[in-house]
Amino acid sequence: MLLFSVFSQAQSNFEDFLNPSDSLNIARQTGVYIGESVALGTTLVGLNQIWYKDYPQTNFHFINDNKQWLQLDKIGHVYSSYHLGRVGAELLSWSGASKNEQLVYGATLGFGFLTVVETFDGFSQEWGASSGDIIANATGTALYVSQELLWKEQRIIPKFSFHQTKFASQRPEALGAALNEQILKDYNGQTYWLSFNIHSFTKDSFFPKWLNLAFGYGGEGMLYGNDTEAIENSVLQNPYRQFYLSFDVDLTKIQTKSHFLKTLFSVFNTIKVPAPTLQYDDFNGVKAHFVYF
Fold it and tell me: E-strand spans in 139-239?
């Protein structure tokens, strides 16, 4: 009974901690800003040591990579910028900060962080800053901010899904040798979605509040970023675009009083729920999947 009492009290305290503040909590607000600064600063330092340190530096320059990987890398930037900004805004909401502060200093977190990364690229001889990446980063931030200003809710959510493909084993140094690398590098297995909440748009009680309709985009047949690069390496590839239509779940619309579950749902609402899916592409035509991820 004593252990149960202690556990219950700890659980209650944890729930209170996760409960967003009704008014500005200076301690929480300060903690958010310090925590974000430390986390992002550490990430940038680590990125510089792991990714950029071994490559020569040069004057800041741009490259045009807008025709690479069927633009899946650009859509990945939209996705990352949106969700980093969403987390920044939700953390400030938890601290009781005003809506303006959430949008100005929270929702722009993704754009700011990814702009610094783009600056690192610009000074690296191996890469270069990409105007397409910068536009994609701004688009992800704008997608979040515009919905908050227009609807005061997120009706359209970028999501991600991944499945392993045969292409990674053909070029593991670029597409990833292990699953954790392939998720980031193998564009053949990545699918990006825009998930629309049906009830939010229709206001029809017939549709459950958590039910979404998702439109996806992916691609296959890519060993190199474009055909020119593939030919230079004596490889013939046949990249093609894929389009998807599927159902999805907005986990944040599931009713619960538990702030722990709300936090958990917010974290996993970045991932598309596996569901029956229709696929269309020029190579296969229309194809149905009983479950697609």
Answer: 156-162, 190-197, 211-220
User: Residue 39 in 3-state DSSP?
Assistant: helix
pTM for the complete prediction?
A: 0.93
- Integer CA distances (angstroms), 272 to 90, 190, 245, 264, 288, in order: 20, 11, 12, 15, 17
The span from the CA of 179 to the CA of 193, in Å, is 21
- Structure confidence by residue, pLDDT tens digits, 210-237: 999 999 999 999 999 999 999 999 999 9
Q: Evaluate whether 88 touches 148 at the Cβ level (below 8 Å).
A: no
The Cβ of residue 90 has, within 10 Å, a number of other Cβ atoms equal to 18
The C-alpha atoms of residue 82 and residue 157 are separated, in whole angstroms, by: 9
* Strand extents, DSSP E, the chain: 62-63, 129-130, 156-162, 190-197, 211-220, 240-249, 275-281, 285-292
